[in-house]
Amino acid sequence: MITNFKIKASDEELISNSQETKLNSEVYTKKDLFDYSRVIVKKPWGYEYLVFENEFVAIWMLHIVRKRKTSMHSHPQKRTSLIVLAGNATCSHLEGSEKLNPLDGIFIEEGVFHVTEASNELPIDPLSENGIWVMEIESPPDKGDLVRMKDEYGRAGKGYEGTNNMVFDPSDCVKFQEPEPGQVLRKNFNDCVFTIAGGDDLELTNASPEALVSVISKKGGEKSANPYLKTGGLTNFKEYCENTKDENLENYKFLTIQKTSVTMKVSDYIFSELAALGVKDVFTVSGGAAMHLLDSLGTNKDINHISTHHEQAAAMAAEGNARITGKPGVALVTSGPGGTNALTGVCGAWIDSIPTIFISGQVTSNTLIEGTGLRQFGIQESDIVSMVKSVTKYAVVLKDPKQVKYHLQKAVYLATTGRPGPVWLDIPLDIQSKLVIPDECPSFEPEEKPITENKSLKEQVENCIDLLKKSERPVLISGYGIRLARGEKEFLSLVEKLGIPVISSWTTSDMIPSSHELSIGRSGIFGDRAGNFTVQNSDLVLSIGSRLSVPQVGYNFPLFARAAKK
Question: Whole-model pTM?
Answer without folding.
Answer: 0.73
